[in-house]
Design brief:
The protein is an alpha/beta fold and about 525 residues long. Helix content is about 35%, strand content about 10%. The chain is globular. The protein binds pyridoxal-5'-phosphate (PLP).
């Protein structure tokens, strides 16, 4: 019984014997395990001359294409059923919110209601084109306007820019608006203050806008150190970027003092609103002195996360910054809606266009569907339930793991590696062992202000039964670690389709794409 156990990339395609027998699972002839098929790369499956749709060759292709025929680009040849099966098998290796709890902190992986999907696919939304004349897409523009109204109402802010495509893009929009306002006032500034616990996108954005970053430490309560912040304030500070609730899952209770302090030196208050899902319906940032804040629709309003998109990160802006919002602007006319598409006339102060067309229409439909199906009281309950879930996890684990800060949390519970001290198990080992137990790990080693961080965000869409199963598993793993059962963690995951990466090798010599091996390359020449 033997089939090749390494593919052409040197990737293991079947469990090694030691691991297999350790886990009590014997090696199979095929390398498949149960109905989970080990999958080769599509290039390894493909054969020359095979294709999905078999059309007769066209006559005179060469002359009709006027010499534009391209050389063989080496795509793998497979029949239609082979392609379908390949991608279906790969998709079964995917972990998703539709498979189970996805407790990644700072990510808000919550259920995407199917109602939203259904509405986004209605032909009146799904089939319209952004280049249609405005008169023929009045309903689509009205939907964007209605969503903008809800975002302004929820945040208590007078203006909103809808087009940014993600949280980070929203940060860029907000800081560009701040820079434009300062420039218009003849008050160029050079520094932006960013707390140590901030998401990496905050300093990256400020730097992209040409600012120097000044880092503010956290205090012993996990909040921004107000005294340290005040010490750094001076007339060259353009803005402070504060996440609230912050990435330790804590409400910045001195937020109004922060607003007052930055305003006292003529700077602006950028609030990272990625965690709005914890305070929606309870706190309006407009009442806290915020000048600009992005809202990740894919977090708070349950639109799907994708590999970098399609997201949406609308930015609410204060009165002072509204004139600098990116175009297009929606204009109400007596007869309906129009679009102001360029930074001219009334929009002369605009930072210009940040994104093609109007933003991610499909996400707008989903977010508005989410808001309307919940209603104002429902949205408030969403944030209350998110906070309740996180506190349930915190309270249920705090005797066996080590919470980083005292007291209640907001929407995510933060633990550090203290409970693993002297156990021989690291935060990384602990997270990997969760995979063997069927759980996607929480966020680890972020935020950086605590050692070996484990940030758990259960969200409101988990049932108590699902939280209990998660909690029981975490308790069991914590008990194993403190009992010295290091075996359970070493080299975990042992049962997943892919084992522990050699992180050093992956970083130093990454194999980022398939290349034909030498033999194939030679034959192709
Ligand atoms: C606190 C915080 N800020 C900013 C971002 C960036 O948002 P996005 O991933 O939509 O660009 C995130 C995303 O996870 C976040 O958690």
């Amino acid at each position: 019984m033997s089939r090749q156990s390494m593919n052409s990339q040197g990737r293991q395609t079947r469990p090694n014997e030691a691991t297999a027998s350790e886990s009590g699972i014997s090696e199979t002839y095929t390398g498949h395990r149960g109905l989970d098929k080990e999958e080769a790369l599509i290039f390894e499956l493909g054969r020359a001359g095979q294709c999905g749709v078999d059309l007769p060759a066209l006559d005179n292709t060469d002359s009709r294409l006027d010499g534009l025929m391209r050389d063989d680009i080496g795509l793998p040849g497979l029949s239609e059923p082979e392609v379908v099966r390949h991608y279906v098998r790969l998709s079964r290796n995917n972990y998703a919110i539709d498979s189970g709890i996805y407790p990644l902190g700072s990510c808000t992986m919550k259920h995407n209601p199917r109602l939203n999907e259904k509405l986004a696919r209605l032909p009146g939304f799904g089939d319209i084109h952004p280049m249609q004349p405005t008169a023929t897409v009045q309903g689509g523009i009205e939907l964007i306007d209605r969503l903008a109204h809800w975002l302004k109402t929820i945040t208590g802010m007078p203006s909103v820019a809808m087009s940014p495509a993600a949280g980070a893009h929203g940060e860029l929009c907000g800081l560009m608006a701040i820079r434009a306002k300062l420039t218009a006032d003849g008050d160029a500034r050079s520094r932006v203050l960013v707390p140590e616990s901030a998401h990496g996108t905050n300093p990256a954005t400020a730097s992209m806008c040409g600012y120097k970053i000044d880092s503010i430490p956290a205090n012993e309560r996990g909040r921004v150190d107000l005294a340290a912040l005040k010490e750094k304030l001076a007339p060259d500070v353009a803005a402070v970027m504060l996440t609230n609730p912050n990435t330790c899952g804590l409400f910045e209770d001195e937020v109004m003092e922060v607003a007052e302090a930055i305003h006292s030196v003529g700077g602006y208050f950028y609030c990272d609103g990625a965690n709005l899902n914890a305070v929606m319906g309870r706190v309006r940032v407009g009442d806290l002195g915020v000048d600009a804040m992005h809202i990740n629709l894919h977090k708070t309003f349950s639109t799907p996360h994708g590999g970098g998109g399609p997201g949406a990160g609308p930015v609410v802006l204060s009165e002072a910054l509204a004139a600098h919002a990116p175009v297009p602007w929606i204009v109400h006319t007596g007869q309906g809606f129009d679009l102001h598409e360029t930074a001219t006339g009334d929009a002369a102060g605009s930072i210009g266009r940040l994104k093609s067309f109007h933003g991610q229409m499909g996400m707008f439909v989903r977010a508005l569907a989410y808001m309307m199906s919940h209603g104002a009281d429902g949205l408030q309950q969403v944030s209350e339930d998110a906070v309740l879930s996180a506190n349930y996890v915190l309270a249920s684990l705090k005797d066996v793991m080590s919470p980083s800060f005292e007291g209640y949390c907001m929407h995510e519970a933060l633990f550090d590696e203290e409970f693993l001290k002297d156990s021989g198990v690291t935060t990384l080992d602990f997270a990997k062992a969760m995979i063997d137990e069927g759980f996607h790990p929480m966020t680890i080693y972020f935020p950086l202000v605590v050692h070996g961080a484990m940030l758990i965000e259960p969200t409101e869409s988990e049932s108590k039964a699902s939280l209990d199963e998660f909690i029981d598993t975490m308790r069991d793993l914590a008990a194993s670690a403190s009992a010295g059962d290091v075996e359970r963690f070493t080299d975990a995951p042992k049962l997943a389709p892919r084992k522990r990466l050699d992180e050093t090798r992956a970083a130093r010599s990454p194999v980022l794409r398939w290349r034909p091996d030498a033999e194939t390359a030679e034959a192709a020449e």
